[in-house]
Amino acid sequence: MSDGILRVGSSGAQVRVLQSALAAAGYDPGRIDAILGQKTERAVKAFQAARGLSIDGLAGPLTVGALRSLRVPLLSIRQPRPFDIVGDPVLVAGMVMGFEATFHARVLDSNGNFLVDQPKTMGRGDGITEVSFELTTGVPPSAHGSIDIFEFSAEDGSVIKRNLIPVVFGRGILDTYGGFLPHLVRQGETLGAIAGTFYGDPALSNRIFLANPHQLADPGQIFPGQVLRVPVE
What we know:
This protein is 23% helix and 35% strand. By secondary structure, the chain is α+β, with helices and mostly antiparallel strands. The strands form two sheets. Strands 1, 2, 3, 4, 5 and 6 form a six-stranded mixed sheet that branches. A two-stranded antiparallel sheet has the order 7-8. The model has no long low-confidence stretch (mean pLDDT 89).
């Protein structure tokens, strides 16, 4: 990555490195194709906003330098992502640095009560190791909750390296949850009408509302063009 300014329309190896760096930092640049399009520009702006930089979407020296200076996280959870609908068991995957480090894995309901609380020994060397494991929850008492992966400090017992991820429990919405179908909202549709189409009962619209907390604050307000997740067996 050079000190030149990359902008919408730029292409080449420098753009590919920029896109890869953004993706590694957790900002989705879209397809890593060495072409700086609007999705990559949005990722640049999101990164700039988080770092307190001028939000102009231009990958100049300050933005590039900030990307270069990012530290490798000692514990990075890649799955689930925030507001994913998770099944039972919940699959957790990510990367950890350390040799047989002991982390704690918790699943919490919407009131902060523990559904799962397990120690996990992760890491097989002094470098970065990929890890994955499952957490069996049973039927949660609520549709929303979180996955909490962290370590207790050996010095003072405080929580460190925390990854707290809000999630939607599929079995908290539908006991026999098997996945979800995407639905593009059309003009004039309501959640009740969508529920009638998928479930044969408009009264089951709350299932769809609960499945989309990152998009819906009011069950009476949906908009054409939204892609809603519809839980199914």
